Amino acid sequence: NDVILFDTVQRQIGNDQELFRRELQSLGDGEFSKDSWMRWRSRALELLSENEQQQFFKTGILACALKKDMVSQNIKKVKDNHQPIAPIVAMSTPKDACHESSERASGLISKIIISRNTLFRLTSNLWTKAGLTNGAVGKIQAIIYREGQQPPALPVGIIATFDDYKGPPFLPDCQKSVPIVPVRRDWHANKIHCTRTMLPIILGYALSIHKLQGSTCERVICNPGKKEFANGQLLVGATRTNHF
Q1: Beta strand ranges found along 165-219 (DSSP E)
Q2: What stretches of the chain show up as alpha helix (H) in DSSP?
Q3: SS3 breakdown of the chain: % helix, strand, coil, rounded to 5?
Q4: pLDDT, averaged in runs of 10, over the chain (244 residues)
Q5: Is 144 within 8 Å of 158 (Cβ atoms)?
Q6: Looking at the chain, which terminus has fewer C-beta neighbours within 10 angstroms, N or C?
Q7: For the chain, what is the largest distance between any 2 Cα atoms, rounded to a whole number of angstroms?
Q8: Measured between alpha carbons, how far is 32 from 29 in angstroms, rounded to an integer?
């Protein structure tokens, strides 16, 4: 019987972000002005200094409206690591369950490519008190296989590090290291019991604007496409950062 109204912006808090907050509000209200557009246009990637462009390329996340843009960016960044790449395929039953979406499998994707130094995001809450929550960003340090196995088989697990991890290190000589093992998800499709076993991760260089909802990122390269195909898409992408 209770209703809670959230009326205070927390992500873009501070006097220095007041104008940005007003512009975001006007965008959400459908009253975005030409002056605001011109101010935002000054932050177009190609207009930034070479040094700032490199900072965005190195540490920014690409927020995409289109899946093809997200996929191509993630593949490019994994290749840029210049490490041996392991294509990983989930274990699915029945066989056709591999074609089901990650939403049906509670966030588990059917295939991924990874390497050492690959950035990724968790898709499960593994240990919330220690900071291993859905959306936490990690870096792969090692990929572990059983003897005699190799890609595209599902590995035993990976060793990763998380900057915000608050627990003890798994490896004494590797601070903030954590083991991540495959997990299993069950669902029903057309009354058929389906399962998928996979590492609970997705690549972290580019995400759909939809999947970035709720996240706060230091640097965001927003690629909303030529037009919105869902109401509020540009607003969600623009509000992922806490400063203009």
Answers
A1: 177-180, 183-189, 192-198, 201-203, 206-208
A2: 18-28, 34-41, 50-59, 67-79, 233-238
A3: 25, 25, 50
A4: 90 93 94 95 94 92 93 95 95 92 92 96 94 94 95 95 95 96 94 96 94 88 88 91 90
A5: yes
A6: N
A7: 62
A8: 8
> Which has the closest alpha carbon to 86: 77, 78, 98, 97?
78
* 137-144: strand order across its sheet: 177-180, 157-161, 137-144, 119-122, 201-203
pLDDT at 85: 96
Cβ atoms within 10 Å of 174's Cβ, excluding its own: 14
pLDDT for position 200: 97
* Partners of 178 in beta bridges: 160
HEC readout, 124-152:
CCCEHHHCECCCCEEEEEEEECCCCCCCC
Amino acid 224: pLDDT: 87
